[in-house]
Amino acid sequence: MAADLGDLAAFVAVAKAGGFRDGARASGLSASGLSEAVRRLETRLGVRLLNRTTRSVAPTEAGTRLLERLTPALNEVEAALDVVNGFRDRPAGTLRLNVPVSAARLVLPRIVPPFLAAYPEIRLDVIAEDSFVDVLAAGCDAGIRYDERLEQDMIAVPIGPRRQRYATAAAPSYLDRCGRPEHPRDLLGHACIGGRFASGTRLAWEFDRNGESVRIDPSGPLIVRVGTATDLAVDAAVAGVGILTLFEDWLQPHLDSGALEPVLKPWWQAFPGPFLYYPGRRYVPAPLRAFVDFIGTQRWDA
């Protein structure tokens, strides 16, 4: 009744991801290949491991028991194989990162090219999304998050600028037409381009100045999904649709060109930069260890 190790790994990938498509994304294999591997495993074991519906895939009781025993065992196999990396001149393998869209745009472009040049045998697989996910369940080695969204029992390493700001801006044409706010509460009378998280929660705008904090729930003609549709919000602001609040670094090219004009700049809120985080366990895959060491050599202006 010996089962193929690849089939076992395929089952774990699908069970953890809750579906063949998400399992394929996490494992780097095809959904059809995973489906065939699980079907082959079920046939060999003579028991159904997954309940499949048109909307979801979930382990059966037998599948749950198998998953509980397999996960640590496969982790040990992966750790054992990674030991070989210590005998190579340079580490090799795949490093999977789950990062917010803002990090993919503002942090990684400075790091990724020189890292891949330094470690040509490492393949970097980056998933950019703003949903708060369990990096291990998503099949990733590490993630990038801000301080308030870090999971417990994780090792956190600073990555990127250590101080960032939210900037508020609008096209000069809009401000000429509708006036320039002098206090954050003036925004309640303006067309604001808002954001919404994947959970459906609207993004509030927060401002600080000389100990005074103001929180605004913006309203206006356009709301976009945070991260994935942010470029649409920026384009709309440049076109004069309304006022936008976003990472200062994201808006900086448009501020420099004059396409956008700063609004309420003395009130812009600063916050600590992001962290690379990964499970606090003894075994760290060689590609991740190389990445952690590499970002430790980087210097940021802020």
Compact description:
37% of the residues lie in helices and 24% in strands. It is of the alpha/beta class and 302 residues long.
Give the helix proportion (percent range). Answer: 25-40%
Mass-distribution shape: elongated
Secondary structural class: alpha/beta
Distance between the termini: 58 Å
Beta-strand content bin = 15-25%
How would you characterize this protein structure?
By secondary structure, the chain is of the alpha/beta class. It has three domains: 5-83, Winged helix-like DNA-binding domain superfamily/Winged helix DNA-binding domain (Arc Repressor Mutant, subunit A, Orthogonal Bundle); 91-162 and 273-295, Periplasmic binding protein-like II (D-Maltodextrin-Binding Protein, domain 2, 3-Layer(aba) Sandwich), CATH 3.40.190.10; 163-272, D-Maltodextrin-Binding Protein, domain 2 (3-Layer(aba) Sandwich), CATH 3.40.190.290. It has ten helices and 15 strands. The strands form four sheets. Strands 7, 8, 11, 12, 13 and 14 form a six-stranded mixed β-sheet that branches. Strands 4-3-5-15-6 form a five-stranded mixed β-sheet. A two-stranded antiparallel ribbon has the order 1-2. A hairpin with a 4-residue loop joins strand 1 (50-52) and strand 2. It is elongated. The mean pLDDT is 86.
Name the features:
302 residues; alpha/beta; Arc Repressor Mutant, subunit A; D-Maltodextrin-Binding Protein, domain 2; 6-stranded mixed beta sheet; 5-stranded mixed beta sheet; 10 helices; 15 strands; 37% helix; 24% strand; elongated
